[in-house]
Amino acid sequence: MANDLRMRLGVHNLSSEQVGAFREAYRQMMAISDNRGYQFFAGLHGAPNWFCWHHRENATSALRMQVFLPWHRAYLYNFEMAMRDRVRDVTLPWWDWTLGPPRQSGLPAVFTEERDGTKPNPLLRFRINLPTANPPVNHNTTRSPDDPADLLTRTGAAVADLLDQSDWSDFTDGLEDVHDFVHGWLSGDMGNIGTAAYDPIFWSHHAMIDRLWWMWQARHGNSNISTDLLDVVLQPFNMRVRDVLNANDLGYDYAAAQGVVPIGGTG
Q1: Which of 22-31, 116-125, 184-193, 221-230 has the lowest mean pLDDT?
Q2: Looking at the domain assignment, is residue 265 inside a domain?
Q3: How many domains would you assign to the chain?
């Protein structure tokens, strides 16, 4: 099974060919205006559709459910499949914001370079154009990252503590707090739920969140996730919480953390 899994890599470990494939997948998706395109997928998270779950809340539901991690795993899975429809064998890399110098200082260069050879770098920004949103949105995404030292200080120790946390509820709440900090550290559109997913770095930030959940599962399994959540449908995807608990069942793995995640008694 392991040989059949597509491997998600860290952005900092991508070869020049892999960076090229990553950028090309985004470039092609950004040129598509239908439900295969970048803007469509970004619009599922915040404006104009607001399907995302954060801190047990969803803008379209009166229910309170702890499905932040499962919903975003389903979201990334569907986005990655759309990437692979454009560029065969590409995978969604994660941005490890716990790394410090010399490996990185703040944002990885693949997201900040103005040019990709002779073309604009599609990972730098995206033009949001939502004339029917309330209010309408039409601008290039922006970032205003804070001090790189703050990013490392606030995330490194917190992640280590979270991976030792054995309770699902405490883990997911704590990881979501770290997630929120990174969004705020980046500021700009990443600091706004309505526009965050339009920034090209959003997906690699969330791949890191998903990777940390994967690592936590490898240690602690899924047996203490509330059984009331298992059959919750992760709209707008045709997937339930139980369908996304094992990343290997979705066909992918994370580099440097390979193996099959135990799924405990969740069935």
Answers
A1: 221-230
A2: no
A3: 1
